[in-house]
Specification:
The protein is an alpha/beta fold. It is 39% helix and 13% strand. Strands 1-7-6-5-4-2-3 form a 7-stranded mixed beta sheet, with helices on both faces. Strands 8-9-12-11-10 form a 5-stranded antiparallel beta sheet, covered by helices on one side. Helix 1 packs across helix 9 and helix 2 packs across helix 3. The radius of gyration is 21 Å and the shape is globular.
Length: 416
């Protein structure tokens, strides 16, 4: 039994956390209620029926369920339209699909949040020699770094006075960068500043890990398009593949034509019998995100009280994504902690994870992901690049109770 393997002092600390974090948990519950209302209302407005779960194969013509699903995603994300497909296999795939649809030879894109996430750098062409990167196909890339976790508004405004920039991209979550994730109010503020100097530039937000953490989404505050993966928040731990793109109707049409073909757009695409899991996934998503957030707050509290340094966000800090980081200082500690998480996972708990090359990443990675869906990060998981300062990234947790047990077991094993 797991409880018998958990250190008594850790159990006492965990019980103390229930009282000390009660107000934080209540705020998370309040946000989940608002977002649950949003999701349930979208289901009712779109008259979802059991027949919408039908398996439509082949070309995928006349899939009324797919149409309703995409209308629900658009409503929940504050967008005019959405593309939600099993053919989109990851968040990186969704981002590449969107950028390659909206940017052509000679266009310029600018990252407004500094370095993009590691798996996006080869896609852009910042390293590697892929003939399919954006740079290899004539797209110009620039970036404007954050200053003390704030957008460099002066530099952004000055650069966007020139109408040669087609698209600006904002990464909401920190990725592997040593910065804060970006609250929706900060994204809203910089969008307002952008529109004061440039009405036409496309504003795109990488929304991965952030969906339903707050009561507003990027498109609610003026973003033209946002993208994400169904193996993260909006899949609710139910969807076993898929991704989404949501935003202005004409932009979604362009992305859909990139996915299928010009003249076809959103009209085709077999659902691979995934409609039921996609509907159920977004229905469960507010609760899954709530549990993931409580799991990360709990993890932060435990590690703060056990003396770990540079635990971020802190247990009482505002959050805009489901990610928790802790700086472990050396490779051995990083690997052992990740192994502790893996050993406390429901799937493949017996596997000893080790650093290894990972497709799309420039450094060796160590990943603990004993999940029901391979690579799912709405389920409790941990990963890290093997580079100083050896920062571990934890995320997810389908239920608060399972996450508590897993974190406590992992910490007990590490202490031994």
């Amino acid at each position: 039994m797991i409880l018998s393997q958990i250190n008594d002092d850790l159990m006492k600390l965990a019980k103390r956390s229930d009282e000390e974090l009660k107000d934080i948990y209540q705020k998370i519950d309040d946000v989940a209620l608002v977002n649950s209302n949003k999701v349930l209302s979208a289901f009712i407005e779109n008259r979802v029926s059991y027949s919408d779960f039908a398996d439509i194969n082949g070309y995928g013509n006349y899939d009324e369920g797919r149409n309703k699903l995409e209308a629900i995603f658009a409503k929940v994300l504050g967008a005019e339209d959405a593309l939600v497909r099993p053919q989109i296999m990851s968040g990186t795939n969704a981002i590449y699909l969107t950028l390659s649809a909206l940017l052509k030879y000679g266009d310029t894109m600018i990252s407004l949040s500094g370095d993009p996430y590691d798996s996006l750098q080869e896609m852009i062409g910042l390293f590697g020699d892929s003939t399919q990167s954006l740079k290899a196909n004539g797209v110009k890339y620039e970036q404007i770094d954050l200053i003390d976790n704030e957008f460099d508004e002066e530099k952004i405004a000055e650069r966007l006075k020139h109408n040669d920039v087609k698209l600006v991209e904002i990464q909401r979550s920190r990725g592997y960068s040593a910065r804060d994730s970006l609250m929706i109010r900060k994204i809203e503020h910089v969008i307002q500043k952008i529109r004061e100097v440039n009405k036409d530039v496309i504003i795109m937000v990488d929304n991965c890990y952030g969906e339903l953490v707050e009561t507003k989404e990027p498109c609610d505050v003026g973003a033209d398009v946002c993208v994400g993966s169904l193996m993260k928040n909006l899949g609710g731990g139910v969807a076993c593949t898929g991704g989404y793109v949501a935003g202005k109707k004409e932009l979604i049409h362009m992305v859909a034509e990139r996915l299928t073909a010009p003249g076809i757009g959103k009209e085709l695409g077999a659902n691979f019998n995934q409609n039921n899991s996609f509907f159920k996934g977004i229905f469960m998503a507010p609760n899954a995100v709530k549990n993931a957030l409580k799991s990360m707050v709990f993890t932060s509290y435990m590690m703060e009280n056990l003396g770990y340094q540079n635990v971020w966000p802190g247990s009482r800090d505002e959050r805009t994504d489901i990610i928790q980081t802790v700086e472990l200082g050396d490779k051995d500690s990083l690997v052992k902690f990740t192994q502790g998480i893996q050993s406390a996972s429901p799937i493949d708990s017996y596997v000893q994870v080790l650093p290894a090359p990972m497709p799309g990443y420039p450094f060796d990675e160590v990943m603990a992901a004993g999940s029901f869906t391979q690579g799912s990060t709405i389920e409790l998981s941990a990963d890290a690049p093997i580079v100083p300062p050896y920062t571990l990234y934890l995320q997810g947790g389908l239920t608060f109770e399972y996450s508590k047990l897993s974190i406590l077991l992992a910490l007990s094993k590490i202490q031994k």
